[in-house]
Amino acid sequence: MSKSVVIVGASMGGLRAAEALRNNGFEGQITVIGEEIHAPYNRPPLSKEVLAKEVTHDAVAFKLRTQVEDVIWHLGDPATSVDLETQVVKTNSGKTFEYDGLVIASGLRPRVLNLPNGKLPGRHTVRTLDDAIGLRADLVPGAKVVVAGAGFIGCEVAATARGLGCEVTNVAIDSFPMIRPLGETLAAELQRRHESHGVHFRLGHGIRDLAGTDSFTGVILDDGELLEATVLVEAISSHCNIEWLANTNLDISNGVLTDSALRAITTDGDPVNAVYVVGDLARFANPLFDDEPRRIEHWNIPTETGKRVGAVLSAYLSQADNFAELAALPFTPLPTFWSDQYDMKIQGFGMPGLANRYELVAGELTDELVMAYFRNDILIGVVGIGMTAEVMKYRKQLLST
User: Fold this and answer.
1) Helices (H), 46-183
2) The domain that contains 348 carries what CATH number?
3) pLDDT exceeds cutoff 90 at 287
4) What is the pTM of this model?
């Protein structure tokens, strides 16, 4: 009898896993369950160039390749539970899906501020296509925008909003924008560049509440300062979409713990051969850096994990002789991220956030540059603004360490 795979999550990771299953010879039924009504699309551009222009599904949709033409897309109906013993996934509508292999690709959702006066209109997040469409409608010239959070998404939204003629203030508890992955020196320089474009910063502060009664008129900071605003964009962090796994014995303490094969691990420390994890939820150790399992929320991870799962899961379902050998292979993807802010093309590789030392190795701090990041004198990351050829040299070094 033909085997079947259920993939919970219809974004990039779920799509790449489906493609990889087919590429590795799996011929059984593949069903992808998605919370959104939209077919898979690319999320990173939502806070960058797509938000600055016209936000449409066509602008960000992935082209569905021929190998996934027969995949069943069950969209707009999220998974609500799974029984690992009977191997059945249940959705919000009450539908059930049996599987021989399960891929967990349900991803993240934005965390929002818990505010006493938080029900006023004008609050936005930027995670989904519908989020971006709603925000784009409010980013009119002259709009007063407060961005909560100074990570990459918060800074990308700030840059985009300034380009659309909005007044922008960025509020964050951090001492500098993007400091965690970039370090103080480069973070301070990027703050200077944002300020040169007219962005205001209130760093070292949080938002205590919203001002207004029937409509949103501003935000109140933790020191009592009132910032007038008509739009609030919340880019503070994310929650893992793991509630549907609550009744399992999987380790979901931070995403879903996996082994090197990306098999889900139970709270007893045992891998589940039929259950795999891709994308932002996968918490795995990467021997390129150390043996500490981590979730990595970078652009290339859904693709890399999807390919890995497709290869291992197809071998498991076909009872291939090399399954155990394949599952034991180390998994060493090189994290990759990028960000467009104004005319800056920021590109990074590795795990610079783990560094205890960094240095400027090419260019000038106020112009195009390359910053290398080290942990105990071992290169573990590189970030460049422009200077792509130089950045790629350090990328090669990272792969050879």
Assistant:
1) 49-52, 57-60, 129-138, 152-163, 179-182
2) 3.30.390.30
3) yes
4) 0.95
